[in-house]
Design a protein that fits this description.
The structure holds two protein chains of two kinds. Chain A is mainly β. Chain A has no helices and eleven strands. Chain A has strands at about 5, 10-15, 20-25, 30-40, 40-50, 55, 65-70, 75-80, 85-95, 105, 110-115. In chain A, strands 2, 4, 5, 6, 9, 10 and 11 form a seven-stranded mixed β-sheet that branches. In chain A, strands 1-3-8-7 form a four-stranded antiparallel β-sheet, with no helix packed on it. The N and C termini of chain A lie far apart (about 35 Å). Chain B starts with a strand and ends with a strand. By secondary structure, chain B is mainly β. In chain B, strand 5 (about 30-40) and strand 6 form a beta hairpin. Chain B contains no helices and twelve strands. In chain B, about 35% of the residues are buried. The model of chain B has no long low-confidence stretch (mean pLDDT about 90). Chain B has strands at about 5, 10-15, 20, 25, 30-40, 45-50, 55-60, 65-70, 75-80, 85-95, 100, 105-110. The chains are: A mainly beta, B mainly beta. The interface of A and B includes residues 4, 43, 105 and 108 of A.
């Protein structure tokens, strides 16, 4: 069974630009979560989608958005990029409707975003 | 909301020595507990998880963890560390449809 797939793996953007990251969950998984990982802040939850609906959202500005498609694939978008958005963005998928209450989440390898 | 503390930012052990990584959580009930490992430049890989039942949980790569309710702890152990275990280890707590990660413990293995 293929794991969680994230694309692109590495990208460099300029301040003010916008970026879209893609995530394909494990087959059969309907929940997709996004995390930002930085050396200073560690792993921070961005948002979680289940059946195309955003169910949870972390404490990030509105420049960070996401969506989920009917095939459970998900994208996250960051607009008006800032230098502080440089991070590893991790996608995770899980079965079921309550991923943190009985189901395990599985992570992709992440997308490295550098903002210059 | 739940919280997780990993008191040790960095631990160095010799190859072949035993290892214990500490994790303490704060939550009103028994949460779901996880340990993940992250190698440089990679995503997080699940080592083991505790949902209920036996408080000693076996995981992959020879790791185990023990849930101690009285101490609100979920420490990760390995009897003999291999050089390939050098990585960052994250404890995580899941509850109330939310997931919180500790700050991580970076493990260095000396030859």
């Amino acid at each position: 069974k293929a794991g969680v797939t994230q694309t692109p793996r590495y990208l460099i953007k300029t301040r003010g630009q916008q970026v879209t990251l893609s995530c394909s969950p494990i087959s059969g998984h309907r929940s997709v979560s996004w995390y930002q990982q930085t050396p200073g802040q560690g792993l921070q939850f961005l948002f979680e989608y289940f059946s195309e609906t955003q169910r949870n959202k972390g404490n990030f500005p509105g420049r960070f958005s996401g969506r989920q498609f009917s095939n459970s694939r998900s994208e996250m978008n960051v607009s008006t990029l800032e230098l502080g958005d440089s991070a590893l963005y991790l996608c995770a998928s899980s079965q079921g409707q309550a991923p943190y209450s009985g189901n395990t989440i599985y992570f992709g390898e992440g997308s490295w975003l550098t903002v210059v | 909301a739940q919280s997780v503390t990993q008191p040790d930012i960095h631990i160095t052990v010799s190859e072949g020595a035993s290892l214990e990584l500490r994790c303490n959580y704060s939550y009103g009930a028994t949460p779901y507990l996880f340990w993940y490992v992250q190698s440089p430049g990679q995503g997080l890989q699940l080592l083991l998880k505790y949902f209920s039942g036996d408080t000693l949980v076996q995981g992959i790569k020879g790791f185990e963890a023990e849930f101690k309710r009285s101490q609100s702890s979920f420490n990760l152990r390995k009897p003999s560390v291999h050089w390939s275990d050098a990585a960052e280890y994250f404890c995580a707590v899941g509850a109330d449809n939310d997931m919180r990660f500790g700050a991580g413990t970076r493990l260095t293995v000396k030859p």
